[in-house]
Description:
The structure holds 2 protein chains of 2 kinds.
Chain A: H1 12-19, H2 22-37, H3 48-52, H4 59-82, H5 91-105, H6 119-141, H7 146-166, E1 185-186, E2 189-190, H8 198-219, H9 222-232, H10 234-239, H11 244-270, H12 280-293, H13 298-314, E3 319-320, E4 323-324, H14 329-343, H15 352-365
Antiparallel strand pairs in A: 1-2, 3-4
Helix pairs in contact in A: 4-8, 4-11, 4-12, 4-13, 5-6, 5-7, 5-11, 6-11, 8-11, 9-11, 12-13, 13-14
Chain B: H1 9-15, E1 43-54, E2 57-68, E3 72-76, H2 83-90, E4 98-103, E5 106-107, H3 113-119, E6 121-123, H4 136-145, H5 152-156, H6 160-180, H7 195-208, E7 213-217, H8 225-240, E8 244-249, H9 252-258, E9 261-266, E10 269-274, H10 276-281, H11 283-290
Helix pairs in contact in B: 4-6, 4-7, 6-7
Amino acid sequence: MSEKANFRENGGVRGWFGRQPTWVRSVVVAVALVLAFLLPYAGDVPLIGPQIVTEGIDWPSALFNMSYYVLLALGLNVVVGYAGLLDLGYVGFFAVGAYGTALLTSPDSVLYADTGWKWLMAVPVALALTMVAGLVLGWPTLRLRGDYLAIVTLGFAEIIRIFATSTTTLRGDRGFASIPHPPGEWGGKPIFGVTDAVPYFWLGLVVIIAVILGVRNLDRSRVGRSWLAIREDEEAAEIMGVRTIKYKLWAFAIGAFIGGLGGVLFAGEQGFINSQTFVLQFSILVLAGVVMGGSGNMAGAILGGALISYIPDRLRGISLGDTDLYEYRFAMFGLVIIIIMVLRPQGLIPSRRRAMELKDREKEVAPQ
Amino acid sequence: MSEPHMETPEELDRANERPVDEAAPTGNPGGATTSDSVRGEDVLLEVDHVTLRFGGVVALNDVSFSLRKGEIFGLIGPNGAGKTTCFNAMTGVYRPTSGAIRFQGESVVGKKKHEITRGGIARTFQNVRLFPEMTALENVMVGADAHHKTSVLSALFRLPRFWQEEKSGRARSIELLRFVGIAHRAGDVSRNLSYGEQRRLEIARALATNPTLLCLDEPAAGFNPAEKEDLLRLIRKIRDTGVTVLLIEHDMRLVMGVTDRIVVLEFGKKIAEGTPAEVRDNPAVIAAYLGVPTDAA
Ligand SMILES: Nc1ncnc2c1ncn2[C@@H]1O[C@H](COP(=O)(O)OP(=O)(O)O)[C@@H](O)[C@H]1O
Ligand SMILES: [Mg+2]
């Protein structure tokens, strides 16, 4: 066999993509990137445009929302999809990133006199803080698996929310206002203003691309192999020399970092956060997105993350009789998830491995 | 290649041209019935009065034996005799209730499982435990990673060490798949491999950690005679690369054909030790295997 042969499976679109020469792949990637950056103008595309960008949608804001949901889904996918650690409290890291930014920049913060930083200065500190939060959550939960881990992480997110609600420093409902926007000027006007969400979407897109590249590099290295091995059989992995504790902590820290990125972007766009922003439902939604898209697979996480944000927005302004469907968005949303999971239990864009697993099970139960 | 652990089996072969039997039992005429008869400098692994209890069950009862470098050592006994437990104690899965286990003179008790592996003890499992959704090649590469030093940061930014180790680890893993005879399945997800291929893959994955001692837990279970014959050939080939082999086996005939020395366990106790010929004629062993006085099926 050839040493250059791709050692993962070669089926379907991804298989086709993998077999193409470098220039074809570069062109495909470049076209996809250009299209992604042109998404704010999707409404102008004849026929399909108006179907996607309906009257009721504030499209640029919807796109920005999608971008941080996608970030969260990508981060959670590292923890749940790759390392197999069921984390139900992922919103906690999003909150830490956003609160970190708010504390360092908002005039409402007790630290304002000492810091009062610009957004960009706060970013690295807030991200470091989320990574520490990831380790703080990861360390005591290392021995836990499956259901137990899920319960503890659930508790973690609730602790952060209750902390935010009830401590004076974190200001509860009153929250933090006047969080500065990201820097930059264009033609004498700030790029990141309050009226236009498109630049924020583009910023989110740039961050997403960086995250995809980073996670892909990790996935295709001993780090990704270690995560997968831990997911498949933790004890066997350790007996084969994998430092399981180290790699589980890294999964938590990297997942937290990516969630924190979502948080700092969110704070920078909204300019205001309070304790109502980070409800538990949020964690569940993101997890639903990852599973719906196809756990353990970045393309799936991206699609799933985008959909959980888009579907409720799409329902805005659509009425059935005299009921506005947006009122029933979570019911509709639940219905969509159920339909998807029934039709495609492995997710919309399944991880190759998972897809194969399910196919084999079908074979096993099918009569000869 | 600068790092010694990156040697391919061929290279190991060359490095090991001295006859493996040099360390084997030439001065062993009376039959080694105690571990004390093994000369100190040749000892690779020492199981020293190990007792291991699970609640009321005494899985290992004051068991002692020693392995010499370069030999194929058999650990046999009826089901439930404590063979797998012995492996588990050696590889850090269980901690002996009392007694010591020394590998190359150093105690392994209390060490982490991955440290023991990196120290040179590799194993397979009685019930195959591969990473089912990873390809055969990836499975072996996990083993090869045991000695890699690529950090998360060098993987993230694809620093030179990443490229270098990924390339050498991959080449070595393919080499090992070829060595055990399943190179053509490299790209297949391991759960789709046949049972026999999975057993071989486990051996390749264990070899990838570059062990000094390879422990095989009933590698021939479920094999037909032809497959068993192939496996014996593979085990000898592994020994000939300089790796000491500790073989748990159920099938007496198989063990007789390949091992240099054997320890027999029954109900957690060592009941015999010696060359295959000695063990075969030992009345206690015959009794244990024929189910006399107890019916240990
Ligand atoms: N984790 C465990 N907990 C309790 N008892 C165990 C455990 N592992 C093994 N045993 C017991 O120890 C004894 C030896 O088992 P084992 O080492 O698997 O035997 P063998 O591999 O020789 O067939 C058996 O009686 C078994 O039931
Ligand atoms: Mg056993």
